[in-house]
Design a protein that fits this description.
Layout lengths: L1 E2 L2 E2 L3 E3 L6 E4 L10 E4 L2 H9 L6 H17 L4 H9 L6 H14 L7 H37 L5 E5 L15 H10 L3 E6 L6 H13 L3 E4 L4 H6 L5 E4 L3 E3 L4 E4 L2 H11 L3 E4 L5 E2 L16 H4 E4 L2 E4 L10 E4 L6 E4 L2 E3 L15
Parallel strand pairs: 6-7, 6-9, 7-8, 9-12, 10-13, 12-17
Antiparallel strand pairs: 1-2, 3-4, 4-5, 10-11, 11-16, 14-15, 17-18
């Protein structure tokens, strides 16, 4: 990811190696403030309060949190439970905690911290490689779309933030966009504001501005109109969990974009690494949907503070489920696949 022209990862070890450094995403785009996390409790708070967010980055942050807990002498299962409870929907959280637990459970206590940090580093490095591979496969889709209309940019609609701020680097659905832009393929992104936390308007737009990708922020309800006008060539989104049957759990509002895309013949692509595929959960109906505070709807982040939008109370389901029948294809590190091809993601890959 580029900030002020310099490349960064969204999470790195501190100089002494005992903690991690992340961006406090609640302050973006107005302030890029790096903060240090030095305990499992701090990592859990950062995940729960959305200092850091996005399924792959939540997983990496939790992995480091468990390593920090072991370094502090905390009991493994108690620290695991603390971090697992931080957010219920993103499957990467449990996946990453399980990887750390498997790496250390049979080791003597004094060897566990070093092994845990090494495994967390490997999880972060792997995420970057996975996203690069997703980017290369998604780039082929963008090249094909451009070949159909070479006289104009490819117009992609994106919901929420599936970018480097949601991963360790590159992002999932944004990775093909970055690679296309960097090779000179003309691409433009319609960026949903993504209420209620406005991850699109605040974070995705921040990313694209930093990288120089042409983009336009739109209201969440504008996507269907743009599709009807022929101004969207494809929808590309990330996901917090894809179930065994191909159902997609993602930020609230994704389902409506998929419905509009299907009605207008616009391809709807979901980008995910194998860590976000959940073969143990049969369908989207079985996924716990996080219900967040209504204050996120009542108040909107604004420069210098928060603006109150209503005097009424609000409900705030954070995710919805898009049925597999509405997904054109899944962009993975192993290639672009249909729902039957997802089964291959149940095992760790060798990124192409």
């Amino acid at each position: 990811m580029k900030l002020a022209g310099e490349w960064h990862r969204s999470i790195t070890r501190t100089a002494d190696g005992a903690g991690v450094r992340i961006l406090d995403q609640r302050l973006l785009p107005w302030e890029a403030r790096w903060v240090e996390l030095r305990s499992a409790a701090a990592a859990g708070q950062a995940i729960r309060e959305m200092w850091t967010r996005g399924a792959p980055l939540i997983g990496a942050t939790a992995a480091y949190g468990l390593a920090m807990a072991l370094a502090a002498g905390d009991e493994l299962d108690a620290a695991y439970a603390l971090l697992l409870a931080a957010r219920p929907t993103a499957v990467n959280l449990k996946w990453a905690l399980d990887r750390i637990a498997e790496a250390v459970r049979n080791l003597p206590l004094d060897q566990r911290p070093t092994a845990a940090f090494a495994r967390a580093d490997a999880i972060a490095d792997e995420d970057v490689a996975l996203n690069q591979a997703i980017g290369r496969h998604g780039l082929e889709l963008l090249r094909a779309l451009h070949a159909k209309a070479p006289d104009r940019p490819v117009n992609v609609l994106m919901h929420c933030n599936p970018g480097w701020l949601a991963t360790v680097d590159y992002g999932t659905a944004t990775a093909p966009i970055y690679l296309a832009h960097d090779e000179g393929l003309p691409v433009h992104v319609w960026v949903d504001e993504t209420r209620p936390r406005n991850q699109g308007a605040l974070l995705t737009a921040f990313e694209f501005a930093g990288h120089g990708v042409p983009h336009t922020v739109i209201t969440d309800n504008a996507g269907g109109h743009l599709m009807m006008q022929g101004q969207v060539d494809a929808v590309m989104v990330g996901t917090d969990r894809v179930t065994a049957n191909g159902d997609v759990c993602n930020k609230i509002g994704t389902y409506l974009k998929a419905l509009a895309a299907a009605d207008n013949g616009v391809p709807f692509y979901v980008a995910l690494p194998y860590t976000t595929f959940d073969p143990a959960t049969a369908t989207g109906r079985d996924v716990p949907i996080e219900e967040r505070s209504g204050d996120e709807v009542v108040f909107a982040a604004a420069e210098g503070g928060a603006a109150r939008l209503t005097l009424s109370g609000a409900a705030n389901p954070a995710f919805d489920v898009t049925p597999a029948r509405l997904v054109t294809a899944y962009i993975t590190e192993r290639g672009v696949v249909d729902k039957d091809g997802l089964a291959a993601l149940a095992s760790a890959p060798e990124p192409a």
